[in-house]
């Protein structure tokens, strides 16, 4: 490993991490690394998300003429 990070977890998240790691039979550290790696791989398979928040227009499409609810 080349990089160390420190994060603060809520009690609930810490308990979940410990329980999930125990069920999987691995350390909480390894589980966290696997989850980060999985998120990284999913990001690569969903490149359209880079467009999230870039579309301009009315906040609600229901404002378009003919679609308003009055």
Please give a structural write-up:
This protein is an all-alpha fold and 70 residues long. The protein has a domain at 11-49. The protein has helices at residues 11-24, 28-45. Helix 1 (11-24) crosses helix 2 (28-45). It is elongated.
Strand content: under 5%
Task: Give the termini distance in whole angstroms.
Answer: 60 Å
Overall number of strands: 0
How much helix is in the residues?
Answer: 40-55%
Low-confidence stretches: none
- The rough form would be described as elongated
What's the rounded overall pLDDT mean?
A: 81
Structural class: mainly alpha
What's the main sheet like?
none
> Could you tell me the radius of gyration in angstroms?
21 Å
Order of helices and strands: HH
| Number of H/I helices | 2
Please provide a brief summary of the model.
The protein has 70 residues and is an all-alpha fold. Helix content is 46%, strand content 0%.
Write the layout of secondary structure elements.
Elements: H1 11-24, H2 28-45
List the main descriptive attributes of the protein structure presented here:
single chain; 2 helices; elongated; 70 residues; 0% strand; mainly alpha
